Amino acid sequence: MIKFLITAIGGDIGYGIIKALKARNRSIYIVGCDVIRYNMSYDLVDEFLISPAYKDEDKWIEFVNDTILTKQIDYFWPVTETELKIVDKNRNLFASTTVVMNSHNILQIATDKMLTAKFLSENGVMAPKTWDDVETCEKNFPVIVKEKFSCGSHSVHVVNDEDNLRAMFAGMDDPIVQEYIGDNSEEYTLAIFSDGKIINYIAFKRQLGFGGMSRYVELIHDIEIKKIAEKIAVTFDLHGSINVQMRKHGGDYYVFEINPRISSTIGFRLQLGFNDVSWWIDMFEGIETVPYICPEEKIFGVRSVEEKIFYEDRKE
Question: Residue 52, preceding bond cis, omega within 30 degrees?
Fold first, then answer.
């Protein structure tokens, strides 16, 4: 039996990872943790533990390592980007297990939006022009202002004039300015998995909904997206899964963000046979990755809201 420790299981990504692991049809035991007990995945794991908040790094690391040792964990899966950063800078502390995460090089580039834009441009992938200086940036409004190291869409702002640009820039931590490309109707998400030999990818046109998650998706078949997936996988020397966010403008795809982790469209792609969670574990287990054959039909997906009720244990 393979034992997993998965963090942040109350979120949509942790929930999707658990579902994808169960779809492997292998003998597994999942220890899940979160700062909140009753969450979307509470009833899906074999054992649940309350986790310290990752803001207290020392306590969080101590909790994780104690759990790995006492539960004899085979695979530790940190889910959020902040957790990935903590583990990345302390990799030597987790040597007693296999950590499911991307390389230091990928994390270093992808978690820094300025480095991401530079990496893409240097490797022939179209990306919005990006600046970290309000004085020298091109002021062709509207422009995007966002934090260099932010996660998700909560710190992304559309700015329409120079006064607001300067005010926004002054009020944010490590801000960058980015060229505004296209519009919301032409936004795409691309999942790429590679074991170093086989490159599998799947792409959706999407509309965002609650929490910045993909609410509505349409499966996309485009040879240009295939080229982008292969170029990024090869240039990154990818051994795992990443998510690429793009907008289309003038017939071209512009990559504006790379998430160095499993992404929130995992539920959609799992139903289409794209199980990058399973492939990632297979890679560690020495199992050859199966080339993914994408369905050719026109396929759409909708994310719905699910409610769950939990009762505290009652005495007889």
Answer: no
Range 282-307 burial, b when 16+ CB lie within 10 A, else e: bbeeeeebeebebeeeebebebeeee
SS (H, E, C) 17-45: HHHHHHCCCCCEEEEEEECCCCCCCCCCC
DSSP character at residue 182: S
Which one-letter amino acid corresponds to residue 109? I
* DSSP assignment letter at 224: H
What pLDDT score was predicted for residue 315?
46
Residue 192, SS3 per DSSP: strand
Coil, helix or strand for 134? coil
* Amino acid letter, residue 191: A
Q: What is the distance between the alpha carbons of residues 36 and 19, in angstroms, rounded to a whole number?
A: 19
Q: pLDDT tens for residues 108-119?
A: 999 999 999 999
Q: What stretch of H or E contains 110? A: helix 104-110
Q: Give tens-digit pLDDT for 186-208.
A: 999 999 999 999 999 999 999 98
**What number of other Cβ atoms are within 10 A of residue 260's Cβ?**
25
Q: What is the CA radius of gyration of the chain?
A: 20
Q: 169 by DSSP, 3-state: which?
A: helix
User: Which residue, 155, 210, 211, is CA-closest to 178?
Assistant: 155
In Å, what is the CA distance from 36 to each residue of 44, 51, 113, 129, 166?
15, 8, 30, 40, 38
For residue range 260-295, list pLDDT tens digits in order: 999 999 999 999 999 999 999 999 999 999 999 999
pTM: 0.94
Give pLDDT, residue 49. 98
Mean pLDDT of all residues belonging to the chain: 94
What are the start-end ranges of the H helices in 111-161?
113-122
